[in-house]
Amino acid sequence: MRSGGAIIPAQRDPRNPAPLATIAFMSKRIAHMPAALLRQTRLERLASGEIPALLAHPDWSTPAPVMLWMHGRTVHKELDPGRYLRWIRAGIAACAVDLPGHGERFEESLQSPDHTLHVVKQMLGEIDRVVEELAHPRWKGVFDLDRMGIGGMSAGGMATLRRLCDEHEFRCAAVESTAGDFSHMPYMQRYEPELIDEMDPVKHLDGWRPTPLLALHSETDEWVPVSAIRSLCEQIRRHDKEQGADPGLMTLKTWPETGAPNEHAGFGRMAHEAKNLQVEFLRQHLGGVEVVDS
C-alpha cells in the first residue's frame, strides 16, 4: 500500500521487510536499485511527513549502527544506491533524506546555486528531527543511536559540518566534495553576510567537539575548490590539538583528478576507492552487525 507518497510494505512492521512482489508502488528512482538493497529498503516520511527518507537496514531485526546521509544540490536521496549497499553489507544501516526542495519535495527555485545556503539552513534545522524519528518505538530499536554517524556530499556536507559545530552525539562524520570555509566560495555575491556567517562552519569551531571526520575531495573540483575544505581541516586539527585530542581524528583524502563531471559529482574512476575508504572508516568508528546474507 501507499501512504503519504512513500513506498511501504503492506505489513507495516519494519522488522519484517516485504518481498519485492508485495510492494504495490515502485518509483523509477528505486527500481534501478540492486535487489539485495531493495529487499532491505523502505521509503518513509519522517517528522510528521515533512522529510522524505530512504531507510535501509542489514536485517531489520538486530540493532545496528546507522549513518544519516544528505545528498548534494539538484539530485535526490536515491541517487547512489551502491553507497547504501556497501553500508548494509558492512552491518551499518542507512538513513538518507531528501534535502529541502529536492527529490520527493522538489521545488524548481531551490535547484539554483543562489539558494544553496537557504537549503543548507533548512536542512540543518531538520537533522535533529530525523534523529528523533529514528528513536521512535515503531522501529523497535533496530537503529542504534549510540552508534550514529552523519555525512553528506556538497550541500549535504555543508549541513553536516555546520551541525558538528553545535552540541551533538554523533560518533563520526564523512563528507565529500564540500566546503567548510566559505571565504573560499563565491558567496559574497549571492548571500547576505549574516546568512554566510551563520552557516559557515569555520566561523563556529568554538563549538566543535573532537570527532572522527573523513573528508574526500578532488584537487581540481570546479564547483567547490579544495581549499574550501582543506582550510577547515587544518583549523580542526589545530582545534583538536588545543583540546588535547588526537589531531589525526581529521582525515582529508584528495585525488589530483578523478574524471568525474566537473571533478565534483562523484569521484569518477576513483569512486570505488572512495566508497571503500568511507565504509572502512565507518566500520572503524561505528562498528557493524554481522550480516549473514545481503
Task: Describe the structure concisely for a colleague.
This protein has eight helices and ten strands. By secondary structure, the protein is an alpha/beta fold. It has a single domain (2-286), classed as 3-Layer(aba) Sandwich (Rossmann fold), CATH 3.40.50.
Which key phrases capture this entry?
19% strand; single chain; alpha/beta; disordered N terminus; Rossmann fold; 8-stranded mixed beta sheet; 29% helix; 294 residues; 10 strands
Describe this structure in words.
- This protein is α/β, with parallel strands linked by helices.
- It has one domain (2-286): 3-Layer(aba) Sandwich (Rossmann fold).
- It is 29% helix and 19% strand.
- The strands form two sheets. The protein has an eight-stranded mixed sheet, with helices on both faces. Strands 1-2 form a two-stranded antiparallel sheet.
- α4 (116-134) crosses α5.
- Mean pLDDT is 90; it is low at 1-26.
The proportion of strand residues reads 15-25%
Low-confidence region ranges = 1-26
Topology-level CATH name? Rossmann fold
The helix content, as a percent range, equals: 25-40%
N-to-C CA distance: 25 Å
Identify the CATH architecture: 3-Layer(aba) Sandwich
Q: How many domains would you count in the coordinates?
A: 1
Q: What structural class do you assign from the helix and strand content?
A: alpha/beta
Average of pLDDT: 90
Element-level helix/strand string: EEHHEEEHEHEHEHEHEH
Task: Record the strand order, biggest sheet.
Answer: 3-4-6-5-7-8-9-10
Separate helix tally:
8
Just give the CATH class: Alpha Beta
The largest sheet, given as strand count, sense and whether it forms a barrel, is: 8 strands, mixed
Q: Radius of gyration in whole Å, from Cα? A: 18 Å
**Total number of strands:** 10
